[in-house]
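Pilot study result, target chain (291 residues):
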Amino acid sequence: MLLVVIWGSTFAGLRIGVETISPAWLVAGRLLSGTFFLGVWLLVMRVLRPPQEHADERPKLSLKAYGWFGVIGIGATMVPFVLYAHAAESVGSAVLAICNGGTPFATVLMAHFWTGDRLSAWRLAGVMLGFLGLVVLVLPALQAGESAGLIGILLGIVGAWMYAVGNIATRLAPRVEPVLSAFIIVAMGGASALLYALVAEPFPVAPSTASLTAMILLGLLPTAIAMFFYVWLIRRAGPVFVSFTTYMSPLWATGLGVLFLGEPLQWSMVGALALILAGVAVANTRAKRAV
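Predicted structure:
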């Protein structure tokens, strides 16, 4: 639920950030500021941890570990961030949510072959229920004729599959303490995003205070803190369970609009909540009983 709250609140920050900062530089600034916050977190942990505990539990970093973290940080974090930023230029948020709904489907398929999480009928039914709930949620926007360019849709679909790759890779990566894992992942993503921004777009000349604040908060909450809990939770609950945040985050974002922006409560929101929660229950509770 914490990941749902953090990621579901990301959309507002992105809208404020891109007002005066281009998408590529917003992604780079978000990842680099996230790297800074995770680095401070690591330093504080090293200072507070007893010396003997620090020596006994020193993480073993190998080339294999760096390779896995590179796949997650560059291929499954920076790349989809950039893809969705560009897709948003021609595709509305409702259509992008549908594209992003492919993440649980892709995660379930990949997990079946690579992590031993078998594709049962209950699990598949749960994913389909969650996706149906997402469709119900965004149906009013789709009926209103929200824009959807073909290139933007393709970018959104590729981004969803790259997120799924990150879910599986995080499960298979060598076990390093979650804070250090998150730091390396975000740092690699930040370095690659900076190179991309330098090549793709001019440096922002006069970003507003609101956009800079949004960028820093994006680095702190949905990047640094969320990446830590993301790594920790995938190792404990598995990639399929975590992938359901894809369905619930847009629901939370919609709920924020109802609670704080005076937007009307629609039947689609209630129906989506019921379907998504049912999907989570079917895909995960039934799987545990079968074990």
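One observation from the pilot: The chain has one domain: 2-47+60-290. A full batch analysis is planned for the follow-on phase.
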